[in-house]
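Fold this complex.
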Amino acid sequence: MERLNRFIVHTVPWLTLGMVLVTFTVVILRYLFERGWVWMQEIALYMHAFTFLLAASYTLSRDEHVRVDILYRPMDVRRKALVNLLGSALLLIPCCAVLFYQSLPFVANSWAVLEGSQDGGGLEAVYLLKTAIPLCFVLLFLQALAIIHHSVQTLRTQ
Amino acid sequence: MSEFAPLAMFLCTFAVLLSGFPVAFCLAGTALGFAGLGVLTGDFDSAFLSALPARIYGIMSNETLMAVPLFVFMGVVLERSKIAEDLLETMAQLCGSLGGGLGISVCLVGGLLAASTGIVGATVVTMGLISLPAMLKRAYSPAVSTGIICASGTLGQIIPPSIVLVILGDVVSSAYQQAQLKMGNFAPVSVSVGDLFMGALVPGVVLMGLYILYIIGLGLLKPATVPAVPDEERAQILSAAFLRRLGAALVPPLVLICGVLGSILFGVATPTEAASVGAVGAMLLSLAKGHFNRTTLKEVMRTTTEINAMVFIILIGASVFSLVFRGYGGDEAVESFLTHEATGGVLGSFALVMAVMFLLGFFLDFFEIIFVVVPIVGPILLTMGLDPVWLGVMIALNLQTSFLTPPFGFSLFYLRGVAPPEISTPQIYRGVVPFIAIQVLLLAGLWFVPELATYMPAKVFGRG
Amino acid sequence: GQAEQQAAPAVQSQQHFKWKMVTTWPKDFPALGTGANNLARSIDALSDGRLHVKVYGAGELVPASGVFDAVSGGTAEMGHGAAYYWKGKHEATQFFSAVPFGLNAAEINGWLRYGGGQSLWDELYADFNLRAFPVGNTGVQMGGWFNREINTLADFSGLVMRMPGLGGEVLRRLEVTVKALPGGEIFQALKTGAIDATEWVGPYNDLAFGLHQAAQYYYWPGWHEPGTALECMVNKQALEALPTDLQAVVEYACQAANDDMLSEFTARNSQALKTLVDEHGVQLRRFSNELLAQIGKVSAEVVAEIAGQDPFSSRVYSSFDAFRKNSIAYTRISEEAYTQARALTFG
Ligand code: NA
Ligand code: NA
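Structure:
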């Protein structure tokens, strides 16, 4: 999982720069040259979607997802580990399971017709975009396992 | 059991959120737990759950929301290259011996930036990144600093152009159509986003004015919480060197921010487009200052990525929650309650709706609330005779207050996400209390003096 | 055993069904959203409550763009929208809603019901586990809202315009950046500048969206949508699980809705046009004949090209095109001749 996160952190963030540059190019083309292509806007949209779906698990590993931490913050290490253990097992893993399971037919149907853009001249790769949904929950599931493992160790040793 | 399920789900989610596990997963996990229970007892139609991927895809393909990472990118660049800090400090020095000068600057810049995005997550996060370090460095009390940031970050919802107002305008307009159709008027008058923008202008500016008055008050009464710029620095104010610095620190970023804001206000560019220009502009500025290199860029991209994931995973969690709520007939329960059980006439019903929306604001993003609640209650209230612009502005102001209110306000979550660990959560909560009081004051004012909202649209568009 | 068998039909006919209908329209939106509501209500009434349909506006259960998948996958049993929204699924879907310079409302009903259109539609949707029924028609639409005058093809160039379906593809050839936004997002996009121009439906719906507050020129005629058919899609298993009488209820309720919506548009559009012009000072403009002829030529190329992409689309196109050829000959000496004759005396 660590190696996976390292891979993510070295690749996914580039998408944010890509998003900025592509959108900026769209703006220049639109206002200075009165030209535009839907596929360019869709590239930026794809990059945005891939950023948050693929980085969700990595963000979790860095503990950057927001918590209501009024009670959590003052807790000692063992209690925090317990919250993360129970939360991962009872909230996060069921979420991942349900969302992964529900997204399979959704994605499969899209692949079956190699679903294209709703807009003329858009990217004909909606099936790839949709595939990011189950991928996100697989990654989150793996991260949840990593958190459980880590929390159990903390509870054993501290 | 099923008729109590929506309420039980609410209460249960409250409790689970308090555990401190990440918000997004608490919302989604608790809701799915309830859905699973309902499937077992036969109270919940499992087909609802199969709508989830389409809803997530809806969030992924929403072009309006793409403005969020772009604004965040711009904010992070301004922060990492110290441009924003210089700007705020220089503005604070201009405020001279006035205590709270920096706070007022934050409020003004927040209002500006807020006006350009109107997305709570983006603005609070950007302002948090830009101004919190500057304020702490100036020995501002952490509570006051975070209070100012949260409050001025949510200003974006009420100061036009705002995405909240745009979406609300859309929904209120269709509710107003229905109300008129129901009353037999088949060539209905329409209320537009433009009306709502105009309607929100006066309350928004008044709100910002009240914030600033409060900070000035703090400077006079409790100068230790908002210290003025030290005398020795102020002494340089009129020196040529300072004026040069002023030009360098103040002008470029202000031009950038005003350009971004102006292009949106005048309808030249969409928020997403303007944000990308802002992001590129910020990179160029920082390059010109010699602060931009490969390491900075990598940090900017990484921070933007994490914040983007944080904001959008919450949106997904909220979407799961509201779907299950709907699946349990929560929407119908609300409707029947309003039409059959609420007494006290139109204002009584409206007060009740406002209270419910306020509570929903703890859990759900404004998209969810506006899409869930307004289509249900809007036509009912408008048929009872409320003014649509007033209704819209009241709702926007109410939601803004909700997002500011501890312990669940979204703006607090977002700021928590970017605040350094030395700042405690209770400090953040304490800091926003005075601003909530100001909000409530304005809400009350608007309640008794609807003209605050309705005068401008009537004047400009000849409505009403 | 015997007693049970005798009782069985009675039990089946008393069985109650609860369906969900997802729509691509904002909840209760005039004529389109309310059309979905009316359909649900008439199914309820005709079945004496045995088939209850709950209607969900766009975004309530799934976003507008998710309606097709939701019904195809069984999330909802029914969906209400327009077939050209599903171009990403199959190019041929577009022929079942609107084709630039194609069939008007009466003609498309004729093609679907008595000209072989419906069986092609059934064949296409069977692959997606769906049945489709025409469930309303907007009549001839308006050409769109612009903030600048459109006199020549060059005036289109550089615009960002909302237009779904084949009409959008035509505009794309004219160097327009084309977006197929769902209805609920149009006003916002036009107001914020995300798009420069848009078409939506006609006076009744356009007035309801307040489009006159975001653009000043209102062009006619709607060459791109001469009579857009709306669709009700039904999940195949859900339909087949119904007793035969309820299946018939669904089918005939759709037919009734098909008639009702066109009647509503006919009545309301003329009233709303008057409001737009008299009360809101909207500037009506006509696309010039020269311009329409040029767009027509591009349209013919685009439609033929798209129809040539796969064998099924070309089958649909040849059926459609044959019907249009015949219609043109008769419509010229019937509807067209009559309206001209009426204008001689009544203006
Ligand atoms: Na704003
Ligand atoms: Na149209």
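Chain A has a mean pLDDT of 90.
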